[in-house]
Amino acid sequence: xxxxxxxxxMKAKLENFIDSHEGNAASFSKYLLESKLLEGxxxxxxxxxxxMNIGKNVKLDMDEKSELLAKRNLIxxxxxxxxxxxxxxxxxxxxxxxSNQCNKEWKVKxxxxxxxxxxxVLHQNFTSFETPATGEMPEITKLxxxxxxxxxxxxxxxxxxxxxxxxxxxxLTRLIQEYMPLSQxxxxxxxxxxxxxxxxxxxxxxxxxFTNSVGSIxxxxxxxxxxxxxxxxxxxxxxCKLTDFxxxxxxxxxLPSELIKTGTVASWDWYKAVDTLGKVARLDADTPARGGVSxxxxxxxxxxxxxxxxxEEVNKRVPKRKLN
Length: 324
Prior knowledge:
Layout: H1 3-38, H2 45-55, H3 64-81, E1 84-95, E2 102-111, E3 121-130, E4 139-148, H4 154-165, H5 169-193, E5 199-201, E6 208-211, E7 217-228, E8 233-242, H6 244-252, H7 257-262, H8 270-286
Antiparallel strand pairs: 1-2, 2-3, 3-4, 5-6, 6-7, 7-8
Helix pairs in contact: 4-5
């Protein structure tokens, strides 16, 4: 290869490198300008001057039709997903030396179900690693989540930690959407059941206590919303712990042995479990003692103790009592 051919080849290679570098620089300049303009922080005069210098060589799409199209697309996405983006702040925190890549911090406030649960706000703070020139989706490298408007129990806390560890903000939004109706149903059961004098809610607010009329505790029941990590869905379940009095009451009413052995019945949902144990508490309060102390004692104040006259028939049967 002659010197002229070598020079021509090196020249072409250098020109391609310059074109590629200028393209990446222009793309990154546009990305930097857009990011700064979208930040919620105020700009000082020096930053504004730098942005104006960048903007001289960058053409931003500020067409009115494009703006209306972007708004319409956002509205359609929110309507289809049921999610409302309350606010979104983002800023570049680091530009990787010698490349067109950067780290970006995001602060997003989302209403997972604005129509049914407008009080629930999901705060997602995450860091992304991005390459603006390629136009590819950013890679999330860190995620931290907080929720307001709903009490976070151990099962919901587990779901939050799982999504944070696996960098899954969209999955968490879906899980919150599915969790809220179940949580509402559970609170409805708590409110309805505890209006009955045989059922009380614990101080922690997550356990129901069933008692008979003399105050003997028969059972403690927890309504659980468990995260199934295999299917990544919620599974409603319940668990009952019987006392000795409760064991006697359930056995006498021939409830499934599964309840006594395992503390639950697979075929019963929340409503069936709470309704059945409520009836057990009520019936145990109105039934004579069955060899235990949990039942209401007999009233002997009006018992006839006089010796009957000779020839009179004595009714030796105790009158039957009716169950309410």
